[in-house]
């Protein structure tokens, strides 16, 4: 679809271009047979990632792929909208939707940055033990975390630790701030999950689809990871 | 999650409007809406409905359940039931609040509805508090909250999960120390020395 | 974020500043200065002294030097805990860090009372906390009734309720500048005022930006 086309037409038929764009986007991936994914689906995935991230005590898997797809979709939309009159009904509505999507993405990324800044060293240590495929930080976030950690270290050194006896500097381990993985979270099961351990005494419960629970995060962390349940 | 965020999420709900203009369908990323034909109802997301209503480009058609008799029934059912009943919309408060504040003229008996909906919310909230009480007294760390809506959860957030976190922390500490010291007791009997291996390590205190 | 002690937590530092009473078990050479009431050079067995928690918590439970005395406050609430009548206790008056202080002392209590007491006390008082934080909006803060953990919970509850009431009136709907920026602006204003009075230029402050783009 070329940019010279009449914007009205383009705005009216984005599904084709969208699906094509996503199919293309996924061809670069390992999985060549990946089904094309719609913009709507990408948005749903991001919305879930956003609420999960807000509610989870620890940093979750990054969503770089989905963010990139959505950013290009947003850019694509804006490109198509640029010839419309700013007071045009269509312009205003599309603009409103894009603002909503931008808000979700920004809030999601900001929430991750907050966790990175709070648990920097803990996250970096964990990241170091993970395989490339399981990394939780995006490359950009990894760099940010590294820089942040070294800036904080440098700052502490400048203002305090350099004036302290050596043994006081060796508290690196003690200084690591870790999240409380036993924090209670609100959970909604996406599908039926059987045999979820819900207590210290190995008490088991089956979760019905759509059922809601309050439970320590650690007991359900892998359900979130596998998208069998989501945080609300 | 504050009420503004919950509202934001609830604004995705679809609601019927009657536009006073006509337009081709709009292909939003979230899905297509329209076509709009003046005088004919069409489903749009709540955020769009609210916007169009403020621009006086439509009337909002209140959802079926936003009707006095239905809501009175729901209220009675909620009073009768031991559990949380399923609400007609998982964002009933947000929908009601947004529709009634942007388009009070579109909702017959708006003020009465407002009262009933508030009543329903209050009944459910106090039910929530009672069940929390029972749940905490029962030494639970896990509870089922089926049919509870986000805004209702908000009424005990974050105070409830935070309290549970602390209770769990102290419970772990109490049990761990009991276990650890009884092991220490065994060690001392065997070795006959006060400085056994069962002593507290520093890492024990890190929580 | 919920309170979860860590190395940088000021609150945790305050807690570990608290004094703990302990009995000296063995003669400690040239440690007499630790005992404010004694003039002797050495610390003699049988003396009771107060030591800060940050020191105590590094000691093994069965260390040869000190036996830690369980503070009276925990013994005193024992009866109330057993009778499940803890809501009326003025916890903040008993100890500002009733729970966290108790948590640190738990392993040192050979009778396993403290751990149980702090756990039960909070468990019994949560409903009450939920209720009072819903009912007193903003204004009155029950100063002496609550310890620091409870006080934080209470604040969180009051905040929730305020947000909800504002939302119901659709008054909290306008996007506000974040508290941080607000604080910063207040400081700037203060700084500017003191400038007028001939104070030092606060310097360094970048011009405040009221709004930032979303991304």
UniProtKB/TrEMBL annotation, chain A:
Residues 79-159 form the GINS subunit domain. InterPro entries: GINS_A, GINS_bundle-like_dom_sf, GINS_Sld5, SLD5_C, Sld5_GINS_A. CDD domains: GINS_A_Sld5 (cd11711), GINS_B_Sld5 (cd21692). SUPFAM superfamilies: GINS helical bundle-like, PriA/YqbF domain. Residues 179-232 form the DNA replication complex GINS protein SLD5 C-terminal domain. GO terms for biological process: DNA-templated DNA replication; double-strand break repair via break-induced replication. Keywords: Chromosome, DNA replication, Nucleus. Residues 1-33 are annotated as: Disordered. It is found in: Chromosome; Nucleus. The keyword Nucleus applies. GO terms for cellular component: GINS complex. Belongs to the GINS4/SLD5 family. The GINS complex plays an essential role in the initiation of DNA replication. This is DNA replication complex GINS protein SLD5. It comes from Drosophila albomicans (Fruit fly).
From TrEMBL, chain B:
Residues 187-207 are annotated as: Disordered. Coiled coil: none annotated. Residues 2-61 form the DNA replication complex GINS protein PSF2 N-terminal domain. One of its GO terms (cellular component) is GINS complex. InterPro entries: GINS_A, GINS_bundle-like_dom_sf, GINS_Psf2, PSF2_N. SUPFAM superfamilies: GINS helical bundle-like, PriA/YqbF domain. Residues 65-166 form the GINS subunit domain. GO terms for biological process: DNA replication; double-strand break repair via break-induced replication. Keywords: DNA replication, Nucleus. Pfam families: PSF2_N, Sld5. It is found in: Nucleus. It comes from the Eukaryota. Belongs to the GINS2/PSF2 family. Component of the GINS complex. This is DNA replication complex GINS protein PSF2. It comes from Drosophila albomicans.
UniProtKB/TrEMBL annotation, chain C:
Residues 194-203 have a biased composition (Acidic residues). One of its GO terms (biological process) is mitotic DNA replication initiation. SUPFAM superfamilies: GINS helical bundle-like, PriA/YqbF domain. It is found in: Nucleus. Residues 8-59 form the DNA replication complex GINS protein PSF3 N-terminal domain. Keywords: DNA replication, Nucleus. Residues 84-168 form the GINS subunit domain. One of its GO terms (cellular component) is GINS complex. Residues 183-215 are annotated as: Disordered. InterPro entries: GINS_A (IPR021151), GINS_bundle-like_dom_sf (IPR036224), GINS_Psf3 (IPR010492), GINS_Psf3_sf (IPR038437), PSF3_N (IPR055221). Pfam families: PSF3_N (PF22466), Sld5 (PF05916). Its main location: nucleus. Belongs to the GINS3/PSF3 family. Component of the GINS complex. Required for correct functioning of the GINS complex, a complex that plays an essential role in the initiation of DNA replication, and progression of DNA replication forks. GINS complex is a core component of CDC45-MCM-GINS (CMG) helicase, the molecular machine that unwinds template DNA during replication, and around which the replisome is built. This is DNA replication complex GINS protein PSF3. It comes from Drosophila albomicans. The lineage of its organism: Eukaryota, Metazoa, Ecdysozoa, Arthropoda, Hexapoda. The gene is LOC117578277.
């Amino acid at each position: 679809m070329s940019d010279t086309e009449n914007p009205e037409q383009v705005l009216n038929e984005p599904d084709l271009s969208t699906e094509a764009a996503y199919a293309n986007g996924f061809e670069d991936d390992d999985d060549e047979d990946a089904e094309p994914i719609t913009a709507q689906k990408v948005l749903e995935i991001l919305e879930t990632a956003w609420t999960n991230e807000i509610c989870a005590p620890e940093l979750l898997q990054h969503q770089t792929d989905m963010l990139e797809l959505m950013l290009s979709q947003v850019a694509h939309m804006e490109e198509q909208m640029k010839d419309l009159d700013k007071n045009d009904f269509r312009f205003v509505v599309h603009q409103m939707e894009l603002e909503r999507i931008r808000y979700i993405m920004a809030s999601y990324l900001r929430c991750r940055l907050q966790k990175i800044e709070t648990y920097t060293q803990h996250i970096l240590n964990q990241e170091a033990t993970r395989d490339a495929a399981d990394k939780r930080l995006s490359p950009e976030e990894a760099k940010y975390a590294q820089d942040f950690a070294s800036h904080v270290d440098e700052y502490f050194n400048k203002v305090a630790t350099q004036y302290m006896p050596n043994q006081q500097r060796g508290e690196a381990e003690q200084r690591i701030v870790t999240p409380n993985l036993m924090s209670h979270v609100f959970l909604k099961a996406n599908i039926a999950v059987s045999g979820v351990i819900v207590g210290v005494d190995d008490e088991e419960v089956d979760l019905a689809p759509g059922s809601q629970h309050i439970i320590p995060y650690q007991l359900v962390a892998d359900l979130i990871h596998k998208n069998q349940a989501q945080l609300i | 999650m504050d009420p503004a965020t919950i509202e934001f999420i609830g604004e995705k709900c679809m609601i019927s409007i009657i536009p006073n203009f006509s337009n081709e369908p709009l292909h939003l990323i979230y899905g297509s809406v329209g076509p709009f034909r003046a005088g004919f109802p069409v489903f749009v997301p709540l955020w769009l409905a609210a916007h169009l209503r403020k621009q006086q480009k439509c009337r909002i058609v209140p959802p079926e359940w936003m009707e006095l008799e239905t809501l009175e029934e729901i209220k009675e059912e909620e009073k009768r039931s031991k559990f949380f009943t399923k609400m007609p919309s998982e964002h009933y408060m947000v929908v009601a609040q947004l529709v009634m504040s942007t388009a009070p003229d579109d909702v017959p008996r708006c003020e009465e509805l407002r009262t009933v909906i508030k009543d329903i919310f209050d009944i459910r909230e106090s039910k929530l508090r009672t069940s929390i009480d029972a749940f905490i007294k029962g030494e639970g760390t896990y509870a089922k909250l089926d049919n509870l809506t986000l805004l209702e959860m908000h009424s005990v957030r974050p105070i409830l999960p935070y309290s549970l976190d602390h209770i769990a922390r102290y419970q772990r500490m109490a049990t761990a120390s009991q276990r650890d010291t009884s092991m220490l007791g065994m060690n001392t009997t065997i070795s006959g020395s006060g400085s056994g291996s069962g002593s507290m390590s520093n890492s024990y205190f890190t929580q | 974020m919920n309170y979860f002690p860590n190395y940088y937590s000021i609150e945790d530092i305050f807690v570990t500043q608290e004094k703990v009473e302990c009995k000296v078990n063995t003669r400690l050479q040239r440690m007499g200065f630790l005992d404010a009431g004694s003039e002797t050079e050495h610390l003699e067995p049988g003396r009771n002294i107060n030591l800060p928690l940050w020191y105590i918590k590094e000691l093994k439970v069965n260390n040869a030097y000190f036996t830690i005395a369980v503070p009276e406050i925990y013994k005193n609430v024992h009866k109330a805990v057993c009778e499940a009548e803890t809501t009326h206790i003025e916890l903040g008056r008993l100890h500002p860090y009733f729970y966290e202080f108790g948590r640190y002392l738990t392993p040192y209590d050979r009778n396993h009372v403290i751990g149980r007491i702090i756990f039960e006390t909070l468990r019994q008082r949560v409903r009450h906390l939920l209720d009072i934080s819903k009912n007193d909006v903003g204004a009155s803060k029950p100063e002496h009734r609550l310890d620091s953990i409870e006080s934080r919970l209470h604040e969180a509850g009051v905040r929730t309720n305020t947000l909800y009431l504002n939302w119901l009136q659709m008054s909290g709907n306008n996007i506000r500048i974040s508290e941080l920026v607000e604080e910063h602006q207040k400081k700037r204003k203060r700084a500017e005022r003191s400038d007028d009075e001939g104070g030092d230029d606060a310097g360094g402050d970048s011009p405040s930006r009221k709004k930032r783009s979303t991304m």
